[in-house]
Specification:
Length: 350
């Protein structure tokens, strides 16, 4: 019996090792990229992030451990845009030429994304500005579709024999994002493409409210109007759409633009620069005069000053993760977005 147990253990270990080697190792800088890569790669890949969800993605230590992981990678995925200031050192130390920029094993996840907040003038006096635009693109689910497409292209380059499989997984992921955005009923009725176009042009909600249904369609759809069919993240965002907010740091423009939040200011005086006493007084006056109810802080920043501002103004401080895994509930990209939308909806609803 003991010999049988030893044999079974050895066999299972060997089987696991062989299976692991058959899968592509996709190493990503951020956990959001790993979550998306796992979605489109399925059983053909093992996606491993270098950064933790609770870390500031600008400042991860390029340790020997991270270099060792990247050394074994078949594909390396990063946002770029000077977000991961540490990734170049990781790649240098990894000594894996096939995942260097320009090689087939390298993916620039931000390629094709419409960038926002591109500075007109670059100067250190402006704080920690990103010359190519705000790099926090993953907090917009429609950008996640573009990121997934870029990752899929990379997977096909390193594993062309699985092209059909990856394309199928990409299509499934993009539809899954649409269902999470708008609800299953609207996606079934109109399809992802039409909904995305209407939503990007800020015409979806007016269209749903305006469109009247015949009695026959009301019976068929189980709703008196198309607006009643709206679900998902867009429906959740109605709780704060058009409302004002102050963020600690300038990293939420993509989320705010996609879900209709009005950013009225930042606790930081300039990106990466703590507020002076004069700026604090300015923010107190702004919050009071405009009756701004929420100050949102990414969970890797110190919330001491935001809480002082809240005490002076009566605003509510809300702590938000910036990435998948930033809180235990945000275990994958979809749960991450759920957490953001639900937390903000609750903050504005209380």
């Amino acid at each position: 019996m003991k010999r049988l147990q030893i044999w079974l253990t050895s066999f299972l270990f060997l089987l696991t090792s062989v299976y692991a080697k058959e899968r592509l190792l996709v190493v990503t800088t951020l956990p959001d990229l790993a979550s998306i890569a796992q979605e489109v790669g399925g059983e053909k890949v093992q996606a491993v992030p270098l950064a933790k969800g609770y870390q500031d993605p600008h400042y991860v230590i390029p340790s020997l451990k991270l270099m060792s992981v990247a050394n074994k990678a078949d594909l390396f995925v990063e946002i770029g845009l000077q977000l991961e200031l540490w990734s170049e050192k990781v790649l240098d130390g990894a000594r894996n030429p096939k995942i260097r920029p320009g090689q087939k094993g390298y993916v620039l996840a931000s390629q094709g994304v419409r960038l926002m907040e591109i500075p007109k003038v670059l100067s250190r006096s402006g704080g920690d500005l990103h010359p190519y635009g705000n790099p926090h693109i993953w907090i917009d689910p429609l950008n996640a579709k573009i990121i997934a497409k870029n990752i899929t292209s990379g997977l096909i380059r390193v594993s062309p024999e699985n092209e059909n499989y990856f394309h199928k997984r990409l299509k499934q992921f993009q539809r899954k994002i649409s269902i999470a955005m708008y609800g299953r009923k609207l996606v079934a009725l109109f399809g992802p493409s039409i909904l995305d176009k209407l939503y990007k042009k800020k015409r979806l909600i007016p269209f749903l409210k305006k469109k009247k249904l015949s009695p026959r369609l009301q019976k068929r759809l189980g709703a008196k109007s198309l607006f009643e069919l709206l679900g998902g993240w867009v429906k959740t965002s109605l709780a704060f759409r058009g409302k004002k907010i102050v963020f600690y740091h300038q990293s939420w423009i993509y989320f705010a633009q996609r879900f209709g939040l009005k950013i009225r200011g930042y606790v930081e005086e300039k990106p990466g620069i703590s507020p002076s006493q004069a700026h604090r007084q300015y923010m107190i006056k702004l919050i009071q005069e405009e009756n701004i109810p929420v100050i949102a802080v990414t969970n890797y920043y110190d919330d001491t000053i935001p809480r002082l501002l809240a005490k002076e103004t009566g605003a509510k401080v809300v702590i938000l993760p910036a990435m998948t895994g930033g809180v235990p509930a945000a275990k994958n990209y979809f749960r991450f977005m759920d957490y953001l939308l639900e937390t903000l909806a609750k903050a504005y609803g209380d």
